[in-house]
Amino acid sequence: MRILFNEKELFLQEDESAFMIKEKYKPDGDLVIYNGFPTQKDVNLKDGDRVTVIKRGEVPSKDELESLMIARHTPGVFEAMKKAIVGIAGVGGLGSNIAISLARVGVGKLILVDFDVVEPSNLNRQQYFVEHIGMYKVDALKELISKINPFIEIETHKVFLNEENIEEIFKETSVVVEAFDKAENKAILANTILIKCPEKFFVAGSGMAGYFSSNLIKSRRVSRRFFLCGDEENEAKIGNGLMAPRVGIVANHMANTVVRILCNELEP
């Protein structure tokens, strides 16, 4: 009988149960998950079953975590994520949410660039906590990502991006994500990547302010290497601020666009 135990193949006798293999292979485990559902009662196993045993608070090894992620993503998707290097310019409302989503899908290396620190007003939409106030955003985000997946490589830069350093900082990347507030900074990054880095894809956001309908937000291909996400209309201004729900929706449109690029889902 073949089963998967913590996503690794095992061949067992026909009369073995979930709790029996727990005691054999992970006796200190606290929780048994049988075919995706926690169980407190022993279950007789059959061919093709999946059993996961978890010890609360234990950090899985790199191999264990990757095996579990492969089971969720399918092997081809996970491998595409693992070998990818993605740059994120700005790690505020958009960038911090994008980085967290890409970390959760297992992107192998993230290059995070931002010279700003966490302020109390950032907590309304950015992936930071009270204890991060005063920290550089890239440092706080690196700390958060390490709690999600400690095996992702994080490179941080506390610099202001300009025409002189963009190419060097993002030289390893296949995709660069724009998550700036100011239009002039967006334009400089876009022009540098799209003109001087012909091998890179560029994903940007535009139009995410307020609490307008979520259905106005879309992902659009502007050119072969340039993708734009948002409603392309509702900018932040007095009386129309940035809030977590719509910023998060746009951020995950952008993260999903990155995943689709990395998986070669988009026509050349």
TrEMBL record:
Which SUPFAM superfamilies does this UniProt record tie to the protein?
A: Activating enzymes of the ubiquitin-like proteins
**GO biological process terms held by the UniProt record:** cyclic threonylcarbamoyladenosine biosynthetic process
Name any one GO molecular function. Answer: tRNA threonylcarbamoyladenosine dehydratase
- Residue ranges of the THIF-type NAD/FAD binding fold domain? 78-265
- The ThiS-like ubiquitin domain covers 1-57
What CDD domains does the database record attribute to this sequence? Answer: E1_ThiF_like
The entry's protein name is: Thiamine biosynthesis protein ThiF
Q: Which source organism does the UniProt entry give? A: Clostridium polyendosporum
